[in-house]
User: Fold these one by one.
Assistant:
Number 1:
Amino acid sequence: MCTTASLFCGFFSVLQSLSGDYIQAAWFILFAGVFDLLDGRLARLAKAESEFGIQYDSLVDLCSFGFAPSILIYTWSLQSLGRLGAMAAFLFFACGALRLARFNVQHSSVEGRFFQGLPIPSAAYLLTTLVLFYHSFAGMPPQKNIPLAVLVMALSLLMVSSINYRSMKAIQWHRRNSFFALVSAVIVLFVIASDPDVMMFVFTLAYVASGPLEELITFRQSKRLVAKVRAHRKERREEKRLKVVGGRDL
């Protein structure tokens, strides 16, 4: 029922986008994310997980977080760019489908504590919260906005990339530090409630940026570790060479 409710929200969002009510369309995508968050939790609590549920959830996600945001962002702004805007919106939809197909194959092996690539709900949330954020400061949608098309294409590529994103599954709620995680969640909800149109966009943007930033930090750390290992091996080889030379002199 939660998955079907998410599907309804995605469908209704498309209707609102086509009628020009972009704010309502954005909020229905956000509501779809709430139902998408609940359906997996309820399935695990009820021990009702199944292959059918996984496939159905992916089809619904493609509608609510792939098709609906594409239609929203296209009718809201990208339409003014002509073919470029249409191709950017389609690229988001197509990469979302590829992202979900890869998740279905890897969900039991690769995607556990980390997501490989930006999750499609997060990509959809960034676009929808961007609409709300922009509307809170400027009433009219942006026209012929090339940076927006670049952002849509960047999100599309992040979804099919191999960049790791942290998952909520990594939080062990039964451990001692889970209390601090719960307090942090309450604080985040309080901050979002203070100004939803702005803070939802800020938090979503921070999560989207966290993947590449953490990947860059990890790459630098691994590069330093490799350099240290190579230097240590070089020192060992030099020590062995000196011992051999010393033995020959004796």
Number 2:
Amino acid sequence: MDNAKTGDSQSSVIKQVCIRLLANREHSKKDLLNKLLAKGFQEESVLPVIEELVKEGWQCDLRYAESYTRYRLLKGYGPSYINYELRKNGVNHFDLEPVVIKNVGNWLELAEKVYLKKYDDEVFLERNEWAKRSRFLMQRGFTSNTINTLFDHLNIKFLGAHR
């Protein structure tokens, strides 16, 4: 009986910690688990509490994915980066498109905004400068197709060379 009370008490503490974390921002199940393990709780004690929070609507990976995607879009990150981060945090299948359409229009519009914030609208570039600017956008998570479309859209050309 004493062990049952200890287990209930620990579950209550775990639940309070989770709710406190979730009150600040959305967290994925994996993120909550990792934070609780770092605080010294045991996985077998944490998992049932997280599942209870999912059933009660406190935690939802879909809400987390939408929130995280919106946050990263507003910071100027592309689909490859956002999908990688979501997978790393335990969300493997999430359709970014509805969030993109609602918040930034489309990937090309976002790439253009990010590009023009960092670079001027110079249209003739040396090969090294073109490559540098392409790498910047790739590191931000934009696909090579989006980057090429953006450069075509902005009429960016190599100086003395053809792409």
